[in-house]
Amino acid sequence: MTVTPSELPPHPKEHDDLALPVADRAFLTRLALRRSSKVIHLADPGPDKTTLEAILQIGARVPDHGKLGPWRFIVLTGTHRESLGQKLADLLESRSKDPEPAQLAAERARFLRAPLVIGVVSAPVESSKVPRWEQVLSAGAVCYNVLLTANGFGFSGCWLSEWICYDGAALALLGLASSEQLAGFIYLGTPTQPLRERARPEIGPRVTFWQP
Ligand SMILES: Cc1cc2nc3c(=O)[nH]c(=O)nc-3n(C[C@H](O)[C@H](O)[C@H](O)COP(=O)(O)O)c2cc1C
Protein backbone atom coordinates (compact mmCIF):
# COMPACT_ATOMS: atom_id res chain seq x y z
CA MET A 1 0.00 0.00 0.00
CA THR A 2 1.20 3.50 -0.68
CA VAL A 3 0.03 6.62 1.09
CA THR A 4 0.35 9.98 -0.61
CA PRO A 5 0.29 13.23 1.38
CA SER A 6 -2.83 14.35 -0.52
CA GLU A 7 -4.79 11.54 1.20
CA LEU A 8 -4.00 13.02 4.61
CA PRO A 9 -5.97 15.77 6.35
CA PRO A 10 -4.81 19.28 5.43
CA HIS A 11 -2.56 21.06 7.89
CA PRO A 12 -4.98 22.41 10.55
CA LYS A 13 -5.17 26.08 11.48
CA GLU A 14 -4.65 27.29 15.04
CA HIS A 15 -7.77 26.72 17.18
CA ASP A 16 -9.32 24.24 14.71
CA ASP A 17 -11.04 21.38 16.54
CA LEU A 18 -9.06 18.16 16.24
CA ALA A 19 -10.27 14.58 16.60
CA LEU A 20 -9.77 12.96 20.00
CA PRO A 21 -7.58 9.84 20.10
CA VAL A 22 -9.44 6.60 19.56
CA ALA A 23 -8.13 3.10 20.30
CA ASP A 24 -6.18 2.12 17.19
CA ARG A 25 -4.76 -1.39 16.94
CA ALA A 26 -2.77 -0.75 13.77
CA PHE A 27 -1.14 2.32 15.29
CA LEU A 28 -0.18 0.43 18.47
CA THR A 29 1.05 -2.57 16.52
CA ARG A 30 3.33 -0.31 14.52
CA LEU A 31 4.73 1.24 17.69
CA ALA A 32 5.07 -2.13 19.44
CA LEU A 33 7.15 -3.52 16.57
CA ARG A 34 8.91 -0.34 15.47
CA ARG A 35 12.51 -0.82 14.52
CA SER A 36 15.17 1.25 12.74
CA SER A 37 16.91 -0.10 9.66
CA LYS A 38 20.66 -0.35 9.49
CA VAL A 39 21.91 2.47 7.29
CA ILE A 40 23.54 -0.03 4.93
CA HIS A 41 20.09 -1.53 4.31
CA LEU A 42 18.53 1.69 2.99
CA ALA A 43 18.15 2.00 -0.76
CA ASP A 44 16.21 3.86 -3.44
CA PRO A 45 13.53 4.96 -3.68
CA GLY A 46 13.48 7.55 -0.96
CA PRO A 47 10.60 9.92 -0.27
CA ASP A 48 9.75 12.23 -3.17
CA LYS A 49 9.55 16.01 -2.73
CA THR A 50 5.89 16.09 -1.65
CA THR A 51 6.37 13.22 0.76
CA LEU A 52 9.49 14.87 2.19
CA GLU A 53 7.47 18.04 2.83
CA ALA A 54 4.82 15.99 4.63
CA ILE A 55 7.46 14.14 6.65
CA LEU A 56 8.88 17.46 7.83
CA GLN A 57 5.49 19.05 8.45
CA ILE A 58 4.12 16.09 10.39
CA GLY A 59 7.48 15.27 11.96
CA ALA A 60 7.61 18.76 13.47
CA ARG A 61 4.26 18.30 15.24
CA VAL A 62 5.94 17.66 18.56
CA PRO A 63 5.53 18.97 22.08
CA ASP A 64 7.25 22.36 22.08
CA HIS A 65 6.98 24.42 25.25
CA GLY A 66 6.17 28.02 24.37
CA LYS A 67 5.68 27.30 20.63
CA LEU A 68 9.26 28.35 20.02
CA GLY A 69 10.01 25.89 17.21
CA PRO A 70 13.56 25.48 18.53
CA TRP A 71 14.75 23.24 15.72
CA ARG A 72 15.36 23.31 12.00
CA PHE A 73 16.14 20.86 9.21
CA ILE A 74 19.05 20.52 6.82
CA VAL A 75 17.98 18.28 3.94
CA LEU A 76 20.59 16.38 1.94
CA THR A 77 19.49 14.99 -1.41
CA GLY A 78 20.92 14.05 -4.80
CA THR A 79 24.47 15.05 -5.68
CA HIS A 80 24.67 17.47 -2.74
CA ARG A 81 25.10 14.43 -0.49
CA GLU A 82 28.37 13.66 -2.19
CA SER A 83 29.49 17.31 -2.22
CA LEU A 84 29.14 17.45 1.56
CA GLY A 85 30.92 14.10 1.89
CA GLN A 86 33.79 15.50 -0.19
CA LYS A 87 34.05 18.52 2.12
CA LEU A 88 34.18 16.24 5.15
CA ALA A 89 36.85 14.10 3.47
CA ASP A 90 38.84 17.29 2.73
CA LEU A 91 38.49 18.27 6.38
CA LEU A 92 39.84 14.92 7.58
CA GLU A 93 42.64 15.05 5.00
CA SER A 94 43.68 18.50 6.20
CA ARG A 95 44.05 17.10 9.73
CA SER A 96 46.12 14.06 8.94
CA LYS A 97 49.67 13.70 7.61
CA ASP A 98 48.91 10.30 6.15
CA PRO A 99 45.16 9.89 5.64
CA GLU A 100 43.81 6.42 4.93
CA PRO A 101 42.37 6.38 1.37
CA ALA A 102 39.62 4.01 2.53
CA GLN A 103 38.58 6.40 5.28
CA LEU A 104 38.43 9.33 2.85
CA ALA A 105 36.39 7.25 0.41
CA ALA A 106 33.98 6.29 3.22
CA GLU A 107 33.63 9.95 4.13
CA ARG A 108 32.82 10.92 0.55
CA ALA A 109 30.15 8.22 0.50
CA ARG A 110 28.77 8.93 3.98
CA PHE A 111 25.53 10.57 2.86
CA LEU A 112 25.14 8.33 -0.18
CA ARG A 113 24.20 5.50 2.18
CA ALA A 114 20.53 6.53 1.93
CA PRO A 115 18.56 8.38 -0.74
CA LEU A 116 17.48 11.08 1.69
CA VAL A 117 19.21 12.40 4.79
CA ILE A 118 17.67 14.97 7.12
CA GLY A 119 19.87 16.77 9.61
CA VAL A 120 17.86 17.90 12.64
CA VAL A 121 19.33 20.95 14.32
CA SER A 122 18.51 21.86 17.88
CA ALA A 123 18.25 25.64 17.72
CA PRO A 124 17.30 26.91 21.17
CA VAL A 125 16.17 30.50 21.47
CA GLU A 126 16.62 32.86 24.41
CA SER A 127 13.61 32.50 26.65
CA SER A 128 12.97 33.57 30.21
CA LYS A 129 10.22 30.93 30.46
CA VAL A 130 11.43 27.83 28.62
CA PRO A 131 14.70 26.27 29.76
CA ARG A 132 17.19 25.36 27.07
CA TRP A 133 16.99 21.70 28.13
CA GLU A 134 13.31 21.55 27.23
CA GLN A 135 14.04 23.06 23.83
CA VAL A 136 16.73 20.43 23.22
CA LEU A 137 14.31 17.67 24.20
CA SER A 138 11.84 19.02 21.67
CA ALA A 139 14.46 18.59 18.92
CA GLY A 140 14.92 14.96 20.01
CA ALA A 141 11.17 14.50 19.71
CA VAL A 142 11.34 15.88 16.16
CA CYS A 143 13.97 13.28 15.24
CA TYR A 144 11.81 10.43 16.46
CA ASN A 145 8.64 11.83 14.93
CA VAL A 146 10.35 12.22 11.55
CA LEU A 147 11.34 8.54 11.75
CA LEU A 148 7.80 7.49 12.68
CA THR A 149 6.23 9.64 9.97
CA ALA A 150 8.59 8.19 7.38
CA ASN A 151 7.54 4.72 8.59
CA GLY A 152 3.94 5.75 8.00
CA PHE A 153 4.75 6.49 4.36
CA GLY A 154 6.40 3.07 4.07
CA PHE A 155 10.02 4.16 4.39
CA SER A 156 12.55 2.91 6.86
CA GLY A 157 15.24 4.90 8.54
CA CYS A 158 17.76 5.38 11.27
CA TRP A 159 18.98 8.21 13.46
CA LEU A 160 22.76 8.57 13.49
CA SER A 161 25.07 11.15 15.00
CA GLU A 162 28.51 9.68 14.26
CA TRP A 163 31.49 12.00 14.56
CA ILE A 164 30.01 14.92 12.65
CA CYS A 165 27.60 15.94 15.38
CA TYR A 166 30.52 16.53 17.74
CA ASP A 167 33.04 18.21 15.45
CA GLY A 168 33.00 22.01 15.38
CA ALA A 169 34.53 22.31 11.90
CA ALA A 170 32.12 19.74 10.44
CA LEU A 171 29.19 21.56 12.03
CA ALA A 172 30.44 24.84 10.57
CA LEU A 173 30.45 23.22 7.10
CA LEU A 174 26.78 22.46 7.67
CA GLY A 175 26.12 26.07 8.67
CA LEU A 176 25.38 25.58 12.35
CA ALA A 177 25.63 28.58 14.64
CA SER A 178 27.59 28.24 17.88
CA SER A 179 24.28 28.28 19.80
CA GLU A 180 23.03 25.25 17.86
CA GLN A 181 23.65 21.51 18.14
CA LEU A 182 23.08 18.79 15.61
CA ALA A 183 20.62 16.31 17.12
CA GLY A 184 21.50 13.86 14.39
CA PHE A 185 20.91 12.79 10.83
CA ILE A 186 17.79 10.85 9.94
CA TYR A 187 18.69 8.56 7.06
CA LEU A 188 15.61 7.49 5.08
CA GLY A 189 15.02 5.05 2.27
CA THR A 190 13.50 1.74 1.29
CA PRO A 191 14.67 -1.20 3.37
CA THR A 192 16.51 -3.93 1.47
CA GLN A 193 16.52 -6.37 4.40
CA PRO A 194 13.92 -7.54 6.89
CA LEU A 195 14.09 -5.89 10.29
CA ARG A 196 15.31 -8.05 13.14
CA GLU A 197 14.54 -7.34 16.78
CA ARG A 198 17.37 -6.12 19.00
CA ALA A 199 17.67 -6.51 22.77
CA ARG A 200 15.51 -3.97 24.58
CA PRO A 201 16.06 -2.55 28.03
CA GLU A 202 13.87 -4.21 30.64
CA ILE A 203 11.21 -1.77 31.69
CA GLY A 204 10.51 -3.27 35.17
CA PRO A 205 13.70 -2.07 36.91
CA ARG A 206 13.29 1.32 35.29
CA VAL A 207 9.87 2.01 36.73
CA THR A 208 9.01 3.14 40.23
CA PHE A 209 5.66 4.23 41.54
CA TRP A 210 6.45 7.13 43.78
CA GLN A 211 4.97 6.96 47.26
CA PRO A 212 5.51 9.15 50.29
C1 LIG B 1 20.88 10.77 19.37
C2 LIG B 1 21.16 9.42 18.81
C3 LIG B 1 22.31 9.22 18.07
C4 LIG B 1 22.60 7.97 17.56
N1 LIG B 1 23.74 7.80 16.84
C5 LIG B 1 24.08 6.59 16.42
C6 LIG B 1 25.30 6.39 15.73
O1 LIG B 1 26.05 7.33 15.48
N2 LIG B 1 25.60 5.14 15.34
C7 LIG B 1 24.78 4.07 15.61
O2 LIG B 1 25.11 2.94 15.26
N3 LIG B 1 23.60 4.23 16.25
C8 LIG B 1 23.24 5.45 16.66
N4 LIG B 1 22.06 5.63 17.32
C9 LIG B 1 21.17 4.46 17.54
C10 LIG B 1 20.24 4.19 16.36
O3 LIG B 1 19.60 5.33 15.91
C11 LIG B 1 19.11 3.24 16.77
O4 LIG B 1 18.41 3.79 17.82
C12 LIG B 1 19.55 1.90 17.16
O5 LIG B 1 20.27 1.34 16.14
C13 LIG B 1 18.34 1.00 17.52
O6 LIG B 1 17.34 1.20 16.68
P1 LIG B 1 15.78 1.07 17.03
O7 LIG B 1 15.62 0.87 18.47
O8 LIG B 1 15.21 2.37 16.55
O9 LIG B 1 15.36 -0.09 16.22
C14 LIG B 1 21.73 6.88 17.80
C15 LIG B 1 20.56 7.09 18.53
C16 LIG B 1 20.27 8.33 19.04
C17 LIG B 1 19.02 8.51 19.86
Automatic annotation (TrEMBL):
Keywords: Flavoprotein, FMN, NAD, NADP, Oxidoreductase. Pfam families: Nitroreductase (PF00881). The keyword Nuclease does not apply. Coiled coil: none annotated. It comes from the Bacteria. Residues 34-189 form the Nitroreductase domain. SUPFAM superfamilies: FMN-dependent nitroreductase-like. Its EC number is 1.-.-.-. The keyword Transcription regulation does not apply. It is an enzyme of class 1 (oxidoreductase). Its cofactor is FMN. Belongs to the nitroreductase family. This is Putative NAD(P)H nitroreductase. The lineage of its organism: Bacteria, Pseudomonadati, Pseudomonadota, Alphaproteobacteria, Caulobacterales.
